[in-house]
Design a protein that fits this description.
The structure holds 2 protein chains of 2 kinds. Chain A is 0% helix and 51% strand. Chain A contains no helices and 11 strands. In chain A, the strands form 2 sheets. In chain A, strands 2, 4, 5, 6, 9, 10 and 11 form a 7-stranded mixed β-sheet that branches. The mean pLDDT of chain B is 91. Chain B is mainly β. Chain B has no helices and 12 strands. In chain B, strands 2, 5, 6, 10, 11 and 12 form a 6-stranded mixed β-sheet that branches. Chain B starts with a strand and ends with a strand. The chains are: A mainly beta, B mainly beta. At the A-B interface, strand 4, strand 5, strand 9 and strand 10 of A face strand 5, strand 6 and strand 11 of B.
């Protein structure tokens, strides 16, 4: 049973481009979370999704950011028109159900140049 | 709303000394609490979790944590630090809405 898979591990984008970050949860996990990590700031919750539904997006910036978790395929975090401040590590986690352990991917490190 | 506060963004201990990383939580309902460890350029790995069973929870790598409701605390301890324990540690709380909220992390340095 593979763990949570995130790709790419490293992503470089120029200002104004789009960034797409992918997350394949563990087999059997239908709960997916996205977090952003900046140095010295810990993990900031962005969005919580279940299959085809956004459950909690209270941590998502109002503009340029969107997330989906389709019935088939990985969860996608999309950042449009990236700016330098979007540079960070983005982590995905998945769980099988309420109050179970969240398993993390190794993250995607986005650099905006 | 739930939250987690980790006191001390950096902690240094000597090899063989006691490790104590502090975590206080705020939750309107009985919480589920977790400690995770993150090594450089890696994702987070679960150390241990509290889910309303025993208040003293034992985890991997010799770590344990005690849930104290009266103090709203869930401090992480290890009797004797090892060089390989150097990493960043995150406390987290989960409520019935299933949102997992993390603290800002504590970087543990182990001095030979």
């Amino acid at each position: 049973n593979a763990g949570v898979m995130q790709n790419p591990r490293h992503l470089v984008r120029r200002r104004g481009q789009e960034a797409r970050l992918r997350c394949s949860p563990m087999k059997g996990h239908s709960h997916v979370y996205w977090y952003r990590q900046l140095p010295e700031e810990g993990l900031k919750f962005m969005v919580y999704l279940q299959k085809e539904n956004i459950i909690d997006e209270s941590g998502m910036p109002k503009e340029r950011f969107s997330a989906e978790f389709p019935k088939e395929g990985p969860s996608i975090l999309r950042i449009q028109q990236v700016v330098r401040g979007d540079s960070a590590a983005y982590f995905c986690a998945s769980r099988s159900g309420p109050n179970t352990e969240a398993f993390f991917g190794q993250g995607t490190r986005l650099t905006v140049v | 709303a739930q939250s987690v506060t980790q006191l001390g963004s950096h902690v240094s201990v000597s090899e063989g000394a006691l490790v104590l990383l502090r975590c206080n939580y705020s939750s309107s309902v009985p919480p589920y609490l977790f400690w995770y460890v993150q090594y450089p350029n890696q994702g987070l790995q679960l150390l241990l979790k509290y889910t309303s069973a025993a208040t003293l929870v034992k985890g991997i790598n010799g770590f344990e944590a005690e849930f104290k409701k009266s103090e709203t605390s869930f401090h992480l301890t290890k009797p004797s630090a090892h060089m390989s324990d150097a990493a960043e540690y995150f406390c987290a709380v989960s409520d019935r809405n299933q949102k997992v909220t993390f603290g800002t992390g504590t970087k543990l340095q182990v001095i030979p």
